[in-house]
Structures are given as C-alpha cells and as structure tokens.
Give the backbone structure.
Amino acid sequence: MDNNIEVKNISLDLIDPNPMNKDIFVVSDIAGLMNSIREHGFMGAIEVYLKPDGRYQISAGHRRYNVMKLLGEKTIPCIVKDLEDESTVTMKLIESNINTRVLSPMELSKAIIAYERALNEEGYSGSVNNKLMQVFNISETKLLKLRSIAKLTDSLQKYAYKVNFPYEAFYDATYFSQDRQKELYELLIEHFKQFPDTELTANLVTQYIQQIKGEIKIEKERIERKKILETIQYEEAGTQETTNVLVPDVADVTPDVQLDIKPKDVQQLNFEQPQFISYEDAMPEQQAKILEENQKKFSVNKEFEIKDLTFQPFSIPHDAADPCGFNILHKKNKISIATDLGHVTPEIFDKLSKSSFVLLESNYDPDILKYSKYPYQLKQRIAGPDGHLSNYNSGDLVSKLMKTGLSSVMLGHLSKENNFPELAYKTVVEEIISNHHDENDIKVGIAKRDGPSGLIDIA
C-alpha cells in the first residue's frame, strides 16, 4: 500500500454498502475469507466515499466489510475518497470486483450492462464496445454473448450464477420466446432428475436447444405450408376402368414388432368379410377374429386372383414377419402398392416399374424425426434399412418410376408424429423437379387417414 495514502479506522455503523453492489454481485466465499481474517488478521483497507451527510459509502471491499460485521468488529481500516458522480462510482465499483474476484457469467453480464449504462450517462464519446472489451479483457464475441444472458428468463439465469455456466452455448436460447425458454428449462430439470450426477455442459445445452430449434422450424413450416394441401385434389370419375383404392390409416410401428405404440384411429376391419392374409404375416390375435371360411391366405411371390383382378405379392424389406407389396393387374393396366419399405432394392424397383399408379409410402421427414420425442432406438429403426421411406426417398423413387410410365402416385403411410401432408407433398414435388421432370406430368396425391380416397382414373 502506498505510504502516502491515509488509512483510518471508521466505525462500521457509519458505513453503507453501495446498493449497486447487491444488484450486480453475489457475496460469496464468506467462510473462507472469515477464516483468513481470524488466522492472519485484517490486511489492507477498504475504500469508501465520504457522503455529504457525514456517512460513508463503500467503493471497494464489500466482502471484507460483511466479514468484519459478522466477526463482531466495531471498526474497519478505510481509505477515504471524495465522493464522485454516480456513473464514476458505478464504474469503479465494477472495476474493483472484476480485478479482484472470479465472477460468474451472470455477474459479468450485469456488470457489463451497468458499466455500459454508466458510460452512456457520462457521455462517453469513444466506442463503447471497445471500452467494455478493454475493461473486462474479453473479445467482442464474448462481450456479445455475456451481455445476452440478461435476455434469459429468471429460471435459466439461476444457472448462470455458477462460474462454469456454459453461457456461450445458451446464446441461441436468448432469441427464444419465454415459452420456449421455459421448455428448455423444463428439459434441463427433467434431465437432472434422471441423471442427477451430470453437470450442465455446453454439449447438453446444445442438444436441447437444437431440439427446440427443430420444433420451431417445423411449426414455421407447418404454418407456411398450411394452404398447400388445398391444391392437392384428384379428379373423381366413374368409368369401368377406374379402381377405387381404399387406404386405411397406419402407424410408424407394425403390430408384430410388439412395441407399445398403437394408432388411435386405425380403421376397424370388417371381420365378417373375407380377409386376405399371408401365411407368414398372419397375426394370431387378428386371425382369431376372422371366421375360418373368411380366411383367404396367400403366399408372398405367388400370384392369386380376386374376381377379374390379378394380385402379385412381392417381398419388401421391413422388420415384420413376412411383409409384402402388391402389383394389381387388370387387362393391360397395372397399379402397385408399396408401404413399409426400409429401402428400395433393384427387385422392388422392377416390380413397381411400368405401373400407371402407385400407392407409395412417404412416412417421415428426416429433420422432424431427428428432433421428435421418439426414443433414440425407435428413431434408428424408422430411418434404418428395414424401417420406412422418407419423403426424400419417396420423391426420388417417383422420379425414377416416371421414366417407366408412372402417371399418378398417392403418398401414404404418413407418420402423425414425424410428417404432415403439406410437407410430404412439397418434398416429393421438389424431388420430381430436381430430377428434371415436369411436375405437371404426374398427379401427386395424399392418402386420407379417416376414409377412402376419391376414385382414380387409371385407364
């Protein structure tokens, strides 16, 4: 300490803390400082301003002041300074703290905002950002991200009082609405309930922020594309060469996989009518509901007939007992049904080639699936080689089939959770265009969930 500086003992009862200190900084590690003063005695002096009313206000040394009061001391060594304007007092208070303590990101954020306000109040003419970078010894990027912590909700800001708070990872969350920030907070709370020994890391925060950003993107696209479906219509005609395709609702998980996921609005089968089931794929519970005389079993890869229609089942890659697609032939016309496709093999492409109409799976959008609340294992299954076709896969296949004569396609098996009709339609059409086809050369429709489609002319 400079020997020329006068130090005097002042009664603690005459000293007031700077109210700004409580607003910005947290009084921490009092116990450690108290033990140090007990063992080694009080070192140095705190700095105070003499106020017009004869009392003193702390400029630097709030923690030591608090400890001396807790120890029951009556006086404390002080360096007395002349009172300065409020802006200067604020800046010196902040400088004292950032130079003598390790501050949390929340404290730094509040200090930056308060220092910036003080600079503006005193009419600082230079670059405020440059001054802040100099005082806090940080880069412009860190300045921006520390300042942004103030935009977080109170519940998230509580985390920011920890020194190791990953504030840079929270930057994107500062642009979320309060509801979305609340969602982020609840995700973190739930995570720590399940994994109490884990810490709040940048990777963990980024994971949940990306999940919410994905939800926001999906919602935005849903709003923007709301009207697209209104343009998707099929001509209804009643000629003899017209086939009425009945499309029941389906879910992401086929029943024989034995996962506890069941669609709520699956169309009920009429078990009093003949039911066509493959020998391998017949599910015991469903089969038991069908009268034996109504059970019409067929073998995959062996054609059979229903009246004047010839059905040609063919194997498809899916994690079920014996899944299959169908070619349906009538005179010179051929239509096909292909859902529950994990991927398209050369054999399947050959089966679908030269079809004038195909009911084709367009199950999920990869981005929606990625950010959905499905378990990781189920996401992997859906997107795997024995799962389902994405909108992009479906669009690519349609583009290739158009070269073999496909003129009409109906997209089916859309996931309720990981897709929506407007997006499936738009993605498939964009794939058709990107593969140098005229979108007007093919009719693209969406299978209804709650009933049959209109009549589709395939003559």
User: Anything to note?
Assistant: Confidence is low (pLDDT under 50) at residues 227-268. Residues 164 and 311 are 66 Å apart (CA to CA). The radius of gyration is 36 Å.
